[in-house]
Amino acid sequence: MNEGLSRGSDIVPTLFIGKWTAKILYTLKERPHRHGKLRRRLGNISQRMLTRTLRNLESTGLIARQVTRSKSLAVEYSLTRLGRRFIIPLGNICRWADHFYMEVNAIIRLTTRTRSRRNPHGN
What we know:
Helix content is 59%, strand content 13%. The protein has 123 residues and is α+β, with helices and mostly antiparallel strands. It has one domain: Winged helix-like DNA-binding domain superfamily/Winged helix DNA-binding domain (Arc Repressor Mutant, subunit A). Strands 1-3-2 form a three-stranded antiparallel beta sheet. Strand 2 and strand 3 (73-79) form a beta hairpin. Helix 2 packs across helix 5. The longest helix is centred in the C-terminal third of the chain and has 19 residues, at 81-99.
């Protein structure tokens, strides 16, 4: 194992799947939301992507899905204790990304153009 890495580094990719993960967690940080309300708050997310991301977050223990019965069946999502603890390092990563956004984007664009020139047919 590399020095400085722990077994926790194995689960990091699972926690950061997709571009919607951080946005969903930050929205749930405010308060629990039903599926429809969450989708409206996030804006440009498909029903399928929201459902997939919520299932992934539930499977990692960062959010909880609560089914309630009143006049109709209602499903509400909220952060778990683990999810609330995860918000702190996630905030640090998001601040780092904000700070270096222009630099990282420039490198990504340059790398993409260089690869396209080397392999114009995508083979």
